[in-house]
Amino acid sequence: MSILKTYARLWTDSLDSALPLLTELTGVQPDLRLAFHSVELAAIGDFLVIAGPADERAKYAHASATVVVEDLDALATTLKAADATITTPTTSGPTGRFLYARHADGAEVEYVEWVPELVRRLIHQGSLARTTPRTTSGKAEPERGAAFRAPWGERGGAHRTARVS
């Protein structure tokens, strides 16, 4: 069982209001946009934006993140072995299968196993598209291992050289 992607959750009244800023901040267009029950969802960069009336969004607010996994059944076995509680059993949704779990420490997470087409499009092809990361200005970011001058230093001192990892 492996984790393919983790999304931080953002809550909003309107996707149409939230997406322009997130598009500017991430430098990408939404990968996915869909309606699910009474809320709308959009995946953009590493954010999952959940929009709709506050009372409808509240139904999903208990989970701190959405984690896309390769094998939901293997994940459920791992969670149970670690004394996690499956709070919403495996259910089918528009992107594949999902479950909600409360870890033994109290953290609550939504786990999703995407349909193969989404994994191909958003994980495998998406990782190829990100082999040369771009800044918001469109310029290529430094290669991994390249040196760059960081604009900070100890106690406000001189710039330090760091390696991109």
From TrEMBL:
Residues 3-114 form the VOC domain. It comes from the Bacteria. Residues 129-165 are annotated as: Disordered. Residues 129-138 have a biased composition (Polar residues). This is VOC domain-containing protein. It comes from Streptomyces avermitilis.
